[in-house]
Amino acid sequence: MSMRTLPLVFINMGGEMLYILDQRLQAPNTAGDCPEKGVWSEQDRKRVMVTIIRTMFSKDFMDQLFKPQQLYSHRTLKTVLTRLAHTSIMRLSPTSMDRLYELMAMAFKRQLVLCPRPRDLLLISYNHLDSVRRFVEDTPNVLNQVDETQRRVIEVYTTLSDAELQLLRQTLLIFLQDMHIRVSFFLRDKVQNPNGRFVLPRSGPVPPGTEVPGMIRMLDSRGREVKRAHFPSGGSYSSPEREGSFSLHGDRVTRLGTNIYGVSQEGETHANRGSAAKGSPSPSPLASEELNLLARLMGGLEVLQRPGSDPAYRVNLFTVDPGEEGEEEEEA
Questions:
Q1: Phi, then psi, of 32 in degrees rounded to 5
Q2: What is the pTM (predicted TM-score) of this model?
Q3: Which helix (H) or strand (E) is 275 found in, with range?
């Protein structure tokens, strides 16, 4: 199953990247050195979002992404996502991209931790794709690219058993297990502890197909119930909600994977790097394979630079001075 994790990583973490970029580019004066009086316009924001999504969901890129292959290091994935972000007129500093990557990784990790069933991993991915559609709803050709990507996801993953999907989830959790970055948005909502680890809820609806915990049924040799016993479940659980839609369009029911950012939350989402996330990852023993993967994935990614076009805008997504290593505060 580790050979099938790469598309899910890009769809979900790429979706989180788009959420953060959209939220930050809506903030006033985001591009302090923008030629037009330091203002990043709404037209610029839409142009950036459409360009990144068009490249990310292009057929050539998806053809390479969906080939069975090992999931490689954070460094490789961050490099590809950086190239994706820079296919637009926007340019991010290495520090901004590092912090952006950490935020998107922690958001995806939270979704994986709170995933009630292995199959809900697909609903999380569909929520990301549904949100991406809204970014490009006025651009039919790009919208078709996103639809085609979801059809591929449906074709590849919906036939997998729950056991196979659980192995996928375990692989993704292992990939993110050493990241314990504190995010103020999660800390404020008390879904993350000060040590950077997420809180597992002991309340709410149980997954579809399961019962509220608290009862033990004893059966005889013929499978007939002969006795019941009750025990305290330690939480406040309720009956399951309806099943989410696994089709191209529909109500996913779960909120995991939806856009948690908004203009009203500007400046409120900070991340503080945990010790496990500091520094660059150790060189991978599969370095040559990673470089080959990187070359294949990035082969069709060309930075947008047309003759006579507007110059690239350098955007500082985070207000902290890169030199302030003592504070290690980030915004999204």
A1: -65, -25
A2: 0.79
A3: none
